# Entry
Amino acid sequence: RAKSAGGNRFELADPEADARAITRHGLTTALPTALDRGEFFIEYQPLVNLDDGSVRGAEALVRWLHPQHGVLGPDRFIPLAEHTGLIVPLGRWVLEQSVRQARQWRERHDEATAGPLRINVNLSPCQLTHPGLVQDTVEILQAAGVDPDALCLEVTESALIGADDDLLKPLRRLAEMGVDIALDDFGTGYSNLANLRRLPVSVLKLDRSFTQSMQQFPADPVDLKIVEGIVSLAHSLDLAVTVEGVETGAQAEQLRILGCDTAQGWYYARPGPPDRLHELALVDATG
Ligand code: C2E
Ligand code: MG
Ligand code: MG
Ligand code: MG
# Structure
């Protein structure tokens, strides 16, 4: 009974769940000031051409260096930021930093690499419905002197399921300007494939679960057929296919044979500081 437990008035059915709730509460409280205090930082993970292994760009992945809890991954705080509305200024900050970074890479690389390094930035559904998205993006690109076609915005498949025209309008405008739109975590959202035609996307990012099923050799024949089907559908709609979570050379080879275009994963590099990408791209370009 509670009383015998040291006068504690609360019986905790699940102490771990309670600890998680307390942390969540603490994080939610600390979140609004974290941006002003400069506690967020961005790691970049290379996007690699599957045909020749060359670095084509990077995805920006935000982290929070919390004064007590250390480095927190986005899964810990993005949902809270969405809930509290901080995601709009946070997302704008990530976009601005990433685009500036792309400009710096460009200045250091353009002559050495085959083309400018591109930058991929994740967009929360809350940012899609925020009226400032298009204007902010235009201003950020102009201020940094970066072409729209060097930017790819990633939106999850689930965010666009059943999206009406109002939601798609800002994405269409960005796409018309030359910004690429990628459908992130594709294959997890049970979207109607015919629906793809309606969306202003130019890249499918195949979810990590597909890559994982390429772990065994030979891979499950049904999984192979599914990926093969997605790739051929994507290509027939003029969409490029990027694969996430590539951890082994065998997976990379299998996905290359299946016709995927671009890959991302620990096999190539973990997310890291911007200079790391610079080194990887340069090594890649010079030999
Ligand atoms: P995502 O966009 O699907 O990003 C890919 C995630 O897979 C990243 O996790 C990355 O670190 C991880 N990953 C990459 N390669 C491998 C691999 O080979 N194996 C495994 N097991 N994992 C790999 P991360 O950094 O924890 O980000 C998680 C999610 O948080 C992202 O998923 C994205 O949806 C979201 N996120 C990250 N940054 C932002 C941001 O600035 N804004 C918004 N709205 N969401 C973000
Ligand atoms: Mg992403
Ligand atoms: Mg993804
Ligand atoms: Mg994913």
The chain has eleven helices and nine strands. The pocket of magnesium ion (ligand 2) is lined by residues 59, 122, 154, 184 (CB under 6 Å). Residues 1-8 have pLDDT under 50 and may be disordered. The first strand starts at residue 40 and ends at 49.
